[in-house]
Amino acid sequence: MRVEEAIGRQIARLREARRMSLAELGEAVGRYLGKPWSRQAVHQAERGGRAFTATELTALALALDTSIPALFLTDEERIDLPGREISSEEYRGVLLHADKDTPLDGVEELIVALHDIGEVLSRPALVRLAKIGRVAEQGTGPRERHLP
After folding, report:
1. Where does the record place the HTH cro/C1-type domain (predicted)?
2. Number of domains in the chain
3. Among 23, 72, 76, 121, which is most buried by a count of CB atoms within 10 Å?
């Protein structure tokens, strides 16, 4: 998957999570760029049909109430760059810090942790266990907690 496609998918996911329409995101981006994006421009960006400037990435992050590194997150195993394909680990590492000895800042560390938690929680076995737990709780009622 090309980098632009990965970013586009993340923009679409974040927009949908915030229950924004294409037009609403275009208007929100326009507040930072001085001119709104059309519905079609947002759609093209979400499909990976455009390269993004630093200014556009900043406006998108502000409009979606997220960080620029969060726009780059992807579950894809490989990312295609013009010169070669890189692994998701290489891709994420480049986006978040310079090398393995450079500590992550708090925001980067939180982004990585949340992404990893999301991957773990989406595993089919955990999803099934959560459903079983909800069904069991409905049958017996919520457990009371006893505080010391």
Report:
1. 11-71
2. 2
3. 72
